[in-house]
Structure formats: structure tokens, C-alpha cells
């Protein structure tokens, strides 16, 4: 089973449906057993929904998006 660190690192790609089938299955197995990472997924989903509802459609440059995702992941690792 993948670690929580690996699971959290994959959450945004999972939400974007950018994971391969093996990575997706590994993450879903982890999420089925780990309440902490389920909470991280829920947070990411709520954040994404809120951003879509509150703000205008903004397309971030890939580098900025990756930095923002890394920042959000680091918040999860600090818990």
C-alpha cells in the first residue's frame, strides 16, 4: 500500500483524472483505509468547488499551478 505522503501527492492529479490506472487504483485502495487522506481529498474537493463558485474562471500557468499544488500538499504533510 502507498504511504500517506504518496497519497496526498497524488490527490490533485486524481481529481484532474490525470493518474494512470495503476496509480489511481493504489490511491483508491489507500483512501479506502485511511481516514486522514480521505479528509485531505475532501478538503481538496471543497477547495476546488469553492474556487469555481467564488471566482472567475482563471487558468493558471502550469508552473504556478504546480507550485500551488505543492503548497497545499505541504499543508497536509504538516498535520
Protein architecture, described:
It contains four helices and no strands. The radius of gyration is 13 Å and the shape is globular. The longest helix is centred in the middle third of the chain and has 20 residues, at 35-54. Helices cover 77% and strands 0% of the residues. Helix 1 (4-15) packs antiparallel against helix 4. It has helices at 4-15, 21-33, 35-54, 62-77. With 79 residues, the protein is an all-alpha fold.
Mind describing the biggest β-sheet? none
The chain-level structural class is mainly alpha
Order of helices and strands: HHHH
Global Rg: 13 Å
* Head-to-tail CA distance between termini: 20 Å
Strand content: under 5%
Q: Count helical runs.
A: 4
Number of strands: 0
Q: What percent of residues adopt helix (DSSP H or I)?
A: over 70%
Whole-number mean pLDDT: 88
What's the shape? globular
* Poorly predicted sequence stretches spanning 5 or more consecutive residues: none
